Amino acid sequence: MDEFQTGSESVEGVIGGSAYQHSRVSQWTSSVVEQSLSQLSKLGKPFKYIVTCIIMQKNGAGLQTASSCFWDNSTDGSCTVRWENNSMYCIVSVFGLAI
Amino acid sequence: MEEFHPGDEVSFNPDEASNSVKECIESIIGGEDYSQNKVNQWTANIVEHSLTQLVKQGKPYKYMVNCAVMQKSGAGLHTANSCYWDTATDGSCTVRWENRTMYCVVSVFAVAIAL
Hints:
The complex is a heterodimer.
Chain A: H1 2-15, H2 25-42, E1 47-57, E2 63-70, E3 77-84, E4 88-98
Antiparallel strand pairs in A: 1-4, 3-4
Helix pairs in contact in A: 1-2
Chain B: H1 14-29, H2 36-56, E1 61-71, E2 77-84, E3 91-98, E4 102-112
Antiparallel strand pairs in B: 1-4, 3-4
Helix pairs in contact in B: 1-2
């Protein structure tokens, strides 16, 4: 799926070799969502997009996320990319809604 | 379910959505402590109930509700979202809730249906 590739590449590009840093995490999440969104809009498909990104420090805490969507099953969809390195987890979700 | 009348103003009301989501969260995890076995059904229930309340408003919208529940243990958590849509009709709101043992962050995205 194109969208999945876009999400993975954006995450790798922004935080690929870094360790969790409280002072930088804010700009990382913003960069990941912005880059993913611009790559998606370049695909030129007639869709509205919503991209969300969660970055969490690895500390033994439990994290659970869920999402529920009310849309048109035949045209709309979503995908989630889970990425990690040894100091943090990153979860990016992309929702695409047909216009 | 309310009828939609063409000609009504189509707009997303983030305050109303925010209140209804807060009530859902309170009713589901209000007095609870973080529990690994239950967290799965809590997040599922929160998104389902919130979605049902939103759809009951009867507006011509598609909705996405996203919920994250995290145990309080000193870890850092950061979330961000970015949307490519029609800013005149579409909107979102985020509700942050916490108790002694966990954080809960719920985001609602509403996208207008072109009629």
